[in-house]
Amino acid sequence: MDLARRVADLIQPSLEAMGYDLVRVLMIGHQRPRLQIMAERTDDVAMTGDDCATLSRAVAAILDVEDAVTGSYTLEVSSPGIDRPLVRLADFDRFAGFDARVELGRLIDGRRRYHGRVVGTDGDMVRMAVDGTTIDIPFADIVRAKLVLTDELLAAAGAGSG
Question: Of 2, 16, 107, 117, which has the maximum CB count within 10 A?
C-alpha cells in the first residue's frame, strides 16, 4: 500500500469524527518531502485557518503515534480551494455545471486531456460536455481532475454553494 493511501486510512476516521471530509492526501518531493492533506468541513461552511490548525494538530498526533511516515517531512493541511481537485466520483455530480480539466492515464479518442463542462456521472462514467459533444470518461482512467476557476465558479463560491 502506498504512503498516501496508508495515511488516508489512518486519519480519515478521526477527521470524519471531527466533522471534516478528507479530500486528498499527497506526498510531494523527495529531498524536502511535504505531506499535503486537503480536507473540507462536512457542514459546507468554508474552512478557516483555525480549522486547518486543529486538523494539523490531530493529524500530526495520529501520524506520530502510528509512526506512519519515516524520515523528516513537512505537514501541510489546507482546504481544497475554489478550483479544487475532483477526486471522488461523487465530486463530478456535486460540481455538475462547472468547467473542469481532466487528465487521463490512457488515450481516449486520441486524447489524454479534456477541458469542458461537467455534466455529472452515469454509473462509473464521468460525463462532460467537450467541444459541443457530451462524452463519457471512465472514472477509473482519470489520474487528475480539477475545477477551472471561472467567474461562474467564483459567484457560486461567494453564494456559499459547491
Answer: 117
What is the DSSP code (8-state) at residue 62? H
* Region 113-123 average pLDDT: 97
> For the whole prediction, is pTM greater than 0.85?
no
Question: Is there a contact between 60 and 10 (Cβ–Cβ < 8 Å)?
Answer: no
| Cβ atoms of residues 77 and 52 within 8 Å | yes
CA distance 130 to 123: 19
* Coil, helix or strand at residue 78: strand
* Grid cell for residue 83: 478550483
* H or E stretch covering 92: helix 89-94
